[in-house]
Amino acid sequence: MRDQVIVDGVSLAVAPGATVGLLGPNGSGKSSLLRLLAGLRPTTTGCVLLDGADISTLTRRVVARRLAVVDQESVTDADPTVRDVIALGRLPHRAPWSPESARDRTVVQEASVAMRTDHLLERRYASLSGGERQRVQIARALAQEPSELLLDEPTNHLDVRHQLELLELVVAAPTTTVMALHDLNLATSYCDEVVVLSGGRVVEAGPPQEVITEEVVHRVYGVRARVEQDEQGVHVRFLRS
């Protein structure tokens, strides 16, 4: 099988506390770039630095104490409660086979409150709706007490109201966040900066009001759009062919 380049020549520096959106059509490299940033996939050239240290030289426990990842879908064959799922975020901070500490219980409670899932703690995870599960997974990530948060399509399968609620909670979290998004209007509303990918390469990067233009939308997505700006930000309206 011939080798295929998935992400190529990407240089990305994320400022502490910023929310950065990765944009692009399916197959553009958003999820692959997130896996590289998380250290879940090795780079063939270049490196990923976490506070100046090459992430490939750090242990998984060290990385997990700093960086949390939420995939598009998380499934389990077990039947855990919501509390059990969120408590998984404490594993990087506990010695093997050690019992849950008072600190662990406090952090789980705080993470559940931050994601508005505290009323669900005793529910079975399998009984939750898609939006509830997504909030629980982000609460689990926050329980790691990370400084960096990586989210892969966090609004996938959610209705408009729950998309907005979820992103409000994400941007309020005390983390530096990089998330892959499909919806351009959500990205312009909630991201400090956006990175537009196509074919695994960066097309444009910067503040949404500078990056999201009619020309970029047409070049990357192959559709016509009207892009307007007002005091509330950038708005993309797609045009029929």
UniProtKB/TrEMBL annotation:
CDD domains associated with the record: ABC_Iron-Siderophores_B12_Hemin
Protein origin, superkingdom: Bacteria
Keyword Nucleotide-binding among record annotations: yes
Annotated coiled-coil segments of the chain: none
Entry protein name: ABC transporter ATP-binding protein
Pfam family, one: ABC_tran
Domain ABC transporter positions: 1-224
Record carries keyword Nucleotide-binding: yes
GO molecular function terms attached to this record: ATP binding
Keywords: ATP-binding, Nucleotide-binding
Native source organism of the sequence: Nocardioides hwasunensis
InterPro entries: AAA+_ATPase, ABC_transporter-like_ATP-bd, ABC_transporter-like_CS, P-loop_NTPase
